Amino acid sequence: MSRTAMRRNTVSVSDSGIGLSRASRTWPIIAGLILSAAWLSAATRTTAADALETELSPLEAAVIRESEATVKAFNAGDAAALGSMFLENGELVDEAGTVHQGKAAISELFADFFQTFPAATLEMLVDSARPVGESLAVEEGQRRITDADGKIAQVRYVAVRARQGTRWPIASYREFADNPLPTPQEALQALGWILGDWVDEGPEGRTEISFRWSDDGSFLIGDYTMSAAGAGESRSTQRIGWDAVAGQLRSWTFDEDGGFTEGRWDPSDAGWVVSSKASLPDGTAGSATLLITVKDTDHFVVRGTERTIGGVEEPDFELTIARKPPQPQVAK
User: Fold this and answer.
1) Which of 35, 146, 217, 261 is most buried (most C-beta within 10 Å)?
2) What is the pTM of this model?
């Protein structure tokens, strides 16, 4: 389902640890069981599903209602009621892989949890709920527990629900590590080889390229100086950054004449494929696909294909860019 309204439901729960194995007594998963609540709070849970009814499918609305019931039971510390949210032979699998099978075992797990961790908060985001045939549904999301000391643990979960009349009790609930998104600098490390000064010199002209980190470390910044016989010099500046929403690297190139280009970088077996679209200062649009292949630490190859400017196809090209040798030291 993956709708904003569905994703913005929260849940408040109790837990002072973060983990769900009896051995560690940190119970992350238990709190996770407030699974489908997507931003359901005590004040809003009675109206959340009703408010979303017009936007959600019957299955999605049912999942929200099941989640509301789970939140209510958890906030009341009612381990038996939480166990009843599962099928008779339902299972709960914690992040460590420990399986708790059946209502009785799951109720006991919650009872121990409430005794050990009487106060904490839980937030949940439901990412999707989709049917599998007429009697099963798969729900995916994430849950975050904040303990009394402000420590946070976050995991992802997958719940399989089985239809019983108008209800959708849980057949299986499993949690997984929710690895944090990379920082911009971490994501850009894959392009770290491009740092430094480069040059391409051929019969048609000369291109000098220099890449460095931005002062805040969030972007790679490249300066381009291009010269061609009879055309003088032109300069461009490029920023390469991490798009956390799209989950990919992107670039923005600005030419001194007012034109600009946006590129999307995708890794491939041969290197990086850059899909670019350009806006020229005269209002003309262009596009191209670039394949950037690293030959060794001092050379990379750029191949341009699918090039168009103003709807007119342009020829392919290939450039081999070499790292500039270090400048000789000047004797003092």
Assistant:
1) 35
2) 0.52
